[in-house]
Amino acid sequence: MPHLVLIDGPNYVFRAFHAIRHLTNSRGEPTNAVFGYVQMLKSVLGRLAPTHVAVAFDPRGGTFRNQMYSEYKAHRPPMPEELAEQWPKVLEVTEAFNLPLICIENYEADDVIATLAKQAEKEGWDVTIVSTDKDLMQLVNERIHMLDTMKDIEYDPAGVKEKWGVDPLRIQDLLALAGDSSDNIPGVPGIGPKTAVQLLQEYGDLEGVLTRAG
Questions:
Q1: Whole-number Å distance between alpha carbons of 195 and 199
Q2: Does the structure show a pLDDT above 90 at 170?
């Protein structure tokens, strides 16, 4: 059975940058993000031995979400200069590994990964998403799994429910109720993740919660 591995490029480059500090080459140029990213690629390819691989990256500028909601991720600071210096090298490394680098204008890496994952699932392929992004957990099912190499955890539907308290299909409802501070998206006032989980467990889904809001 074909096995497609989809790597969330920005997710791992940022994590590598913050996890590994004070690493430079002989010219004094920062290399920590590149080094960490390379180690992750080698580990994933060696461990999973996939038949197909793709790495998704975000485009420059905003996406359709910024057009829908001007405050989307507006609170995030600019990319650190030391990371920005390494970004071209990250892209070069991806190509040096002979991996398809997919970047679609107006769409985030998450959107690309989700699209390819569902297309592959439709063809009967197995899919592993390599990321730590909770948004992507809503894709997890019997055919699509998610691997967090930082914590060495592979999530199936039971693993997602254990972590978040709801099934993968209800992750979007959980975030709609509780909001998502990392993306600067507000939720329902007074409802945090724990309360959102309780409401979804009691009423089934977001529509059920809204129907009984009174």
A1: 6
A2: yes
Q: Is the dihedral of CA 123, 136, 83, 59 positive or negative?
A: positive
Average pLDDT, the chain: 95
Instruction: Choose among 92, 94, 83, 101: nearest CA to 31.
Output: 83
Residue 11 is encoded by which pair of tokens?
Answer: 């997710």
Residue 72 has pLDDT above 90, yes or no: no
Which is nearest to 56 in space by CA: 89, 12, 8? 8
Question: Is 159 a residue whose pLDDT tops 90?
Answer: yes
Q: Would you say residue 163 has pLDDT above 90?
A: yes
End-to-end CA distance of the chain: 50
* Spatial distance between the Cα atoms of 39 and 33, rounded to a whole number of angstroms: 10
Question: Both 118 and 170 in a single domain?
Answer: no
Range of the domain at 169: 165-211
Q: How far apart are CA 107 and CA 172, in angstroms?
A: 18
Spatial distance between the Cα atoms of 109 and 102, rounded to a whole number of angstroms = 8
Chain Cα centroid distance, residue 52: 19
Tokens standing for 72?
Answer: 């989307």
Domain of residue 205, CATH code: 1.10.150.20
Instruction: Give the residue among 118, 130, 128, 138 at the shortest CA–CA distance from 9.
Output: 130
- Residue 40 tokens, joined: 């992750």
Number of domains in the chain: 2
